Amino acid sequence: MSKLKQNFNFKPELIKATLADYPVIQNLARFYAYDMSRDCGQDLKGWEFPKDGLYEGPDFKKYFESSSNHPFILKVEGELAGFVLINKLEIMPEVDWNIGEFFIVAKFQRSGIGKKVAKQIFDQFPGEWSVGAIPQNVKALNFWRKLIAEYPNGKFIEQEKTSEQLKTSEHPDPYPMNIFRFKSLTQRTV
Fold first, then answer.
1. Distance (Å, rounded) from C-alpha 112 to C-alpha 170?
2. CA–CA–CA angle 162, 134, 103 (5° rounding)
3. The pTM is what?
4. Are 131 and 180 in contact (CB under 8 A)?
């Protein structure tokens, strides 16, 4: 068994990303898209394997263009391990924070690092949260269900939303999503 799998005491480091980090996150986005294609590629349009063999990740520049968005790079013992992109949703103005994108590279998946990072983010940004997952992405759904059920003492709501319910001017063609809503354990002070 690898050192990583044996040692769950690794402390993930969340680093606030700047525009200079945008290319790094975009490079990781290729692997993010590849990972997502495993579960979503069978059933959803837009996840076809590229003809040139090179996945392009979604463009995450919007996470660097608004002060209400918070991009983070994740490192473990100095090694790049993923990213977390936080935003606010126009379709849910009552929600303070949303996990827009959450990615742990394959080497660090199933090591407990994702759970530590998510809890760290929720504690760092107190208030009402939402997290969405495409229904076909069963690994993500199971991860969020288990984590969120533990995190706010079992108090959360999970709703299935259709593409039509999630459509906005900014996202005219969204995928259906399961949306989890809960409050962080530390409440926001005004």
1. 34
2. 145
3. 0.88
4. yes
